[in-house]
Amino acid sequence: MSLTKTERAVVESLWSKVSTQADSIGTETLERLFTSYPQTKTYFPHFDLHPGSAQLRAHGAKVVAAVGDAVKHIDNISGALAKLSELHAYILRVDPVNFKLLSHCLLVTLAARFPTDFTAEAHSAVDKFLAIVSSVLTEKYR
Amino acid sequence: MVHFTAEEKAAITGLWSKVNVEQAGGEALGRLLVVYPWTQRFFEGFGNLSSPSAIMGNPKVKAHGKKVLTSLGDAVKNLEDLKGTFAHLSELHCDKLHVDPENFRLLGNVLVIVLAQLFGKELTPQVQAAWQKMMTGVANALVSKYH
Q1: From the DSSP assignment, how many helices (H) and strands (E) are in chain A?
Q2: Cβ distance of A123 and B34 shorter than 8 Å
Q3: Given a cut of 90, is residue B1 above it in pLDDT?
Q4: CA distance A78 to chain B (A)
Q5: CA nearest B135 in A: which residue?
Q6: Which residues contact B137 (CB under 8 A, 6 or more apart)?
Q7: B5 touching A (Cβ < 8 Å)
Q8: In this predicted model, what pLDDT tens digit does every residue of B10-39 receive, in sequence order?
Q9: What is the pLDDT of residues A58-89, one digit of tens each?
Q10: Smallest Cα–Cα separation from A64: which of A104, A32, A21, A34?
Q11: Cα–Cα distances in Å, from B83 out to A31, A108, B2, B90?
């Protein structure tokens, strides 16, 4: 599965708007994840997960920045996320099902914040892009 | 059996009262077919599904989307008995339509995204969580008569 030229352009265009609100988008995504899917909190026993917590904000910013890196290197997501891929495979070992949950919450956040830009085409391209990011992050699992 | 708290019910019914069933239904079904093109396998008789704009503008897609979302209105009215409400539709989806239940999950998530687009901030994390719970309940109710 790889992105067409058009899909890449669509993702880059939407992401240029995201980067202006990157940190709060990251935080909102995580809040949605932990509220709709409480089991995902099991990966963060060491965090204060109350809405507005500094740790939540920092981690949300981190996640969105990483996705932003993938957008910047959209022709070579595997290369751009190689270190993160190893981190997830050997240290974090987040069960692969959770990447779908996080991706969904990011899509919900984007749809809520950019209703006009989040056309069916944009939705499709970003969903596919996040699926590729997820598969890169799990490709070293076994 | 799924149980909804008073807050969850309020979150669901509150938002539902503002939903344009025709618009949201067409949008949700259309996006399902665009984002997950393999789901088109169930709609061979729907005519032109050759591009995102063709799909989103297709009158059969809009009509069927409205039908599906109208059905969801029954769920909203019967949150305490989703299984009973969807027993007949469950049999239909298994025996006549032969739909893989995974598709209920996909459509449920697409619908939540459409609600986010329509309602923005109003779809808070808590409201979203109530809707996700209902969509899971509906999906499970639709699988309940599968054999």
Answers
A1: 7, 0
A2: yes
A3: no
A4: 23
A5: A36
A6: B2, B75, B79, B82
A7: no
A8: 999 999 999 999 999 999 999 999 999 999
A9: 999 999 999 999 999 999 999 999 999 999 99
A10: A21
A11: 30, 27, 9, 9
Dist. CA A139–CA B20, nearest whole Å? 42
pLDDT for the residue numbered A51: 87
Residue that the structure tokens 């669901």 belong to: B12
Query: How confident is the model over A82-127, as pLDDT tens digits?
Result: 999 999 999 999 999 999 999 999 999 999 999 999 999 999 999 9
Residue in B123, B126, B132 nearest the CB of A112: B123
Angle, helices B6-16/B125-143, rounded to nearest 10 degrees: 90
Q: Is the dihedral of CA B23, A117, A114, A76 positive or negative?
A: positive
The residue written with tokens 């590729």 in the block is: A132
Residue ranges of B 37-56 with Cβ closer than 8 A to chain A: 52, 55-56
pLDDT number for residue A119: 98
Can you give the pLDDT at residue A1?
86
Whole-prediction pTM:
0.96
Q: What is the mean pLDDT of residues A15-31?
A: 96
Closest residue in A to B8 (Cα–Cα): A36
Check CB contact under 8 Å for B113 and A36. Answer: no
Distance in angstroms (rounded) separating the CA atoms of residues A78 and B121: 34
State the Cα–Cα distance between residues B139 and B72, nearest whole angstrom. 11
Q: Which helix (H) or strand (E) holds A128?
A: helix A120-138
CB pairs under 8 A between A and B: 61
